[in-house]
Amino acid sequence: MDIINILPDSVANQIAAGEVVDRPAGAVKEMLENSMDAGATQIDLVVKDAGRTLIQVIDNGSGMSDSDARLCFERHATSKIHKADDLFAIHTMGFRGEALASIAAIAQVELRTRQHDSELGTQVTIEGSHIVDQQPTVCPAGTSLSVKNLFFNIPARRNFLKKDSVEFSHIEEVFRRVTLIHYDLGFTLTSNGKLVYDLKAGTLLQRIAGLYGNAYKERMFSVEEQTDLVKIRGFVSRPEFSRSRRGEQYLFVNGRYIKHPGLSTAVERAYGDLLPERSYPSYFIGLTVDPSKIDINIHPTKTEVKFVDEHALFAILRSAVKRALGQFSLATELSFDTPEEFNLPPAPKDYVPSQPRISYNPNYNPFRASGSQTHMKLEKPEKLDNIDNPDNLDILEPLAKPEKPAATTGSCLQVQGRYIVTPLASGLAVIDQHRAHERILYDKLSTLNSQLSTPNSQTLLFPVNCTFSAADAEMLGELLPDIKQYGFELSPLNQTTFVITATPADLKEDDLQALLEKLLCDYKGSTMQKYNNRSESLCASLARQMAVRAGTPLSQEQMQQLVADLFACPLAEVSPSGKKIITIVKPEELLK
Q1: What is the pTM of this model?
Q2: Residues 116, 265: one domain?
Q3: Do 162 and 177 share a domain, yes or no?
Q4: Which of 141, 166, 392, 470 is buried deepest, with most CB atoms within 10 A?
Q5: Whole-number Å distance between alpha carbons of 340 and 504
């Protein structure tokens, strides 16, 4: 008995749709790419209900003839591939000929298109792969493709979609990936009747600013390199504007967004020690490579690629980014205008300067206990860098129970600008100052939020305006009640700008724009992960941003206050993110 059957086209198209259009964002990607391949200079994206109800893409491209308007919905129908060799010389975005067939198999589709030299256009209506109607119509030159009721005939797939905010975030990400590298085209994105982005054709830096805010113009270093193998152009962020998660990291090859762990590592390694701990740079880098040297046909979404010579690309990209960081960071520190305060009067005639002298006590020992002749020596302090890895530092043991500092001494010592060393009855406590302050602030902010008490705020002498991307501005607007609970006073000035008039009393950060951006970045990364609700997420993020940084010198009074406040916390051993704060060095280990 025969058991092998040929699948009907409608079923085969639904299977293909599962690979190409797994959610509304997948349809958006294919539709935008088709418009770009049609030579459009202006592309408008309209969505309703995060793409469930409607996804519409309108372009001013070349348009299609009557026969092409119908044929484009057939499976494996494409204008970009004619023979197998064409796969190794691809210069277009879509090329498989599955996109429109897959979309038409799972939605109600209306296509209106007209070529520029034609008086009339064509309208095609399709439901579930079946052509319902085709007739002449009056429409602008170009193409308008409307996809309605996505997955209307596959209820199981529709039930797997997330809530609208999540699905729209995926659409936004696809929109950014497409528009960032095609900065020479104009784009708009409208959601539920509200204009979210209006991007004019311009430069890459202008496009970055259009998507993420004008503040990014001052945060980027230009990267340029050209060799026989690759041409590199793009921007990387200044080290001080790094993020706590890998979000704004975009690599493009021949105008196509890609994911490549090796090249991403090359960019991050170029920063070396310039990045703070657990921080990641932002970058927007485009590579131009001979199409015959890459293979992009290894994944349905075409985001994964293979290169003929990946090792050489890694080295070239790393070198280009490293040189850009070195050149621009040096240029920002050099000034050829002599400040007035350094215009010193000329020295008198025959003046001989004397050598400066420094007074110090050669017998001073910071580890000598007060009133005792016992000398304790801490050798190889550089090992303190391994405080997070006790296996590499066998003299350090985790603190089982918080122990208060010895009341008789109180002498604190700062090591490497990162650790505070203070004596305990059981030895020396080595405290990570940033994590300790983070714990203190988190407990303080949590108590403030739980008791719904009035926060301590400091009014700014001059209000500060902060501009964000449309998506971040909308999110910040939703979070305003929670943020105000911690001492911020801010209100929307327009669709993307907020004015700040007051900040928490403990806040020492001057760059409020960067602080709020990191707050939003942390919130987007942690909302569905560690914390139970958005108040906890914001509290943890704000404590992390406000905490004293590693490398910040502290006075004796500041260190003593920090240690006292830490040991007053119920959970003094670990930071809110679960990192160890304190390690004890026992006296017998010091005596060795």
Answers
A1: 0.67
A2: no
A3: yes
A4: 470
A5: 36
Domain limits at 557? 381-435+552-591
What is the secondary structure of 298-353 as a DSSP string? TSTTS-B-EETTHHHHHHHHHHHHHHHHHHHHHHHH---SPPGGG-PPPPPTT--P
- Taking the C-alpha atoms of residue 415 and residue 181, their distance in angstroms, rounded to an integer, is 46
- Within a domain: 444: no
Residue 310 burial (CB < 10 Å; 0-12/13-18/19+)?
middle
Nearest to 367 by CA among 359, 358, 376: 376
Which tokens sit at 482?
Answer: 């929670």
Instruction: State how far the Cα of 266 lies from the Cα of 256, in Å rounded to an integer.
Output: 19
CATH number of the domain where residue 537 is located: 3.30.1370.100
pLDDT one-digit tens code per residue, 236-267: 998 888 877 777 899 999 988 988 888 999 99
- 523 to each of 243, 414, 476, 512, how far by Cα in Å? 12, 32, 10, 16
CA 90 → CA 80, 82, 95, 106, 315, distances in Å? Answer: 8, 11, 8, 28, 25
Q: Name which of 124, 94, 107 is nearest 23 in CA terms.
A: 107
Cβ atoms of 448 and 485 within 8 Å: the answer is yes
